[in-house]
Design goal:
single chain; alpha+beta; NADH Oxidase; 2 domains; seven-stranded antiparallel sheet; 44% helix; globular
């Protein structure tokens, strides 16, 4: 009798173990895929103020013609809430003010090749880097962190409550040092600076179309507050805010 009980007990243990293995098998089968997905995720690069991030090399060819980009260019204020990639940020900044000639010529024309524009990127949702304010260095194609924290909501308040500024994954802030141009062209240089800002902003628009993301130019904001928020230099004057994110 004792032997029969022992045999039945062993059979019961084997059955329970087999059932447990069958139930857990799908879980174990999915683990490698989950681990692979985790490995493929871009790690968050934590940076301190003053540190620099080398941007990916921009692309010089694409699948969207200039004519197609012009025909599809629209101001987009409604966004999906998805992240941008660092490659996309790199491409947008290069389109705005990237260097395209050995002597320093850029993607947008500048009166006297004096280049008065500076670009800041208010980062909220970008894969691979943490939130904060970064300044674009054209010469090295790098971002330098100039301020901690996510300031998109404060920037939206400074832009008279325009929600697209706080909703966007990033906000590109254009500033200008007028003296770089006016010292050669006098008072008329101010006009040239504003013309140049328009050139650069249109480049961002067309690049956004090519990347299938949305942007808009914002010109209504409190200058001093925007300047303070992005830690702009004393001689810099804010001209544009361009929210950028994937379209809804």
């Amino acid at each position: 009798m004792s032997t029969k009980i022992t045999i039945l007990w062993v059979i019961a243990v084997v059955l329970v173990t087999a059932i447990a293995i069958l139930i857990s098998l799908p879980f174990f089968m999915h683990k490698p895929a989950e681990l692979e997905e985790y490995k493929n995720k871009i790690p968050m690069q934590k940076t301190e103020v003053g540190e620099r991030i080398k941007l990916p090399e921009p692309g010089y060819t694409g699948n969207t013609s200039v004519e197609a980009a012009l025909s599809k260019r629209r101001s987009i204020r409604d966004y999906s809430g998805e992240n941008l990639t660092l490659d996309e940020v790199s491409q947008l900044l290069w389109a705005a003010q990237g260097i395209t000639a050995p002597w320093g010529g850029r993607t947008a024309p500048s009166a006297g090749a004096l280049y008065p524009l500076e670009l800041y990127v208010v980062v909220g949702d970008v894969e691979g880097i943490d939130k904060g304010v970064y300044k674009y260095s054209q010469e090295e194609h790098e971002l330098e962190k100039v301020k901690e924290d996510d300031i998109r909501a404060e920037l939206a308040d400074a832009a008279v409550g325009q929600e697209c500024v706080s909703d966007a994954a990033i906000d590109i802030v254009f500033t200008a040092v007028y003296e770089r141009t006016t010292r050669k062209y006098g008072e008329r240089g101010i006009r040239y600076v504003h013309i140049e800002a328009g050139h650069a902003a249109q480049n961002v628009y067309l690049q956004a179309v090519s990347l299938d993301i949305g942007t808009v130019v914002i010109g209504a904001f409190m200058d001093d507050r925007v300047k303070e928020l992005v830690n702009a230099g004393e001689q810099e004057n804010p001209l544009y805010i361009m929210p950028v994110e994937r379209k809804r």
